[in-house]
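Progress note, sequence design subtask.
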């Protein structure tokens, strides 16, 4: 859950590099294409940020009892990309180290995570974003 007004304040801070350090070029381009600015942009990005956090929490919960595969301070948030279809429904695409670590995390000697023809890993995060008042919230469910 993200408090949108606080998130907007963080984005508006002079010299802030938060947006470019956690959102992919594609995520920023999608927001720009929608003509978002100011509070509307903050609300949109807060939802995407909530998804990224939910993905990490779902992954972390799936390996309960084990240490995080990628320490939080080493995580490149841009490797978790939130994409939307033509109707605004969101999905997550993993890239780089995060994608490799998720795949490795769930591959076992008896049940390997297979690479599908479409490039997907066989591990899916089902995600949803909602906004209520000053908050953006997201849920992520990891499925294998």
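Output:
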């Amino acid at each position: 859950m993200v408090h949108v007004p606080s998130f907007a304040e963080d984005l508006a801070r002079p010299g802030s590099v938060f947006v470019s350090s956690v959102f992919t070029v594609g995520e920023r381009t999608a927001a720009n294409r929608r003509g978002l600015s100011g509070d509307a942009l903050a609300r949109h990005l807060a939802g995407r940020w909530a998804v990224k956090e939910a993905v990490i929490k779902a992954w972390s919960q799936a390996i309960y009892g084990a240490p995080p595969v990628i320490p939080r301070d080493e995580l490149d948030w841009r490797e978790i990309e939130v994409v939307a279809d033509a109707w605004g429904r969101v999905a997550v695409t993993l890239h780089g180290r995060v994608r490799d670590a998720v795949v490795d995390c769930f591959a076992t000697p008896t049940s390997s995570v297979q690479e599908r023809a479409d490039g997907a890993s066989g591990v899916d995060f089902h995600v949803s974003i909602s906004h209520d008042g000053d908050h953006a919230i997201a849920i992520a469910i990891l499925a294998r």
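Residues 2-143 form a domain with the Ribosomal Protein L22; Chain A fold (CATH 3.90.470.20). Work on this subtask will continue into the next period as scheduled.
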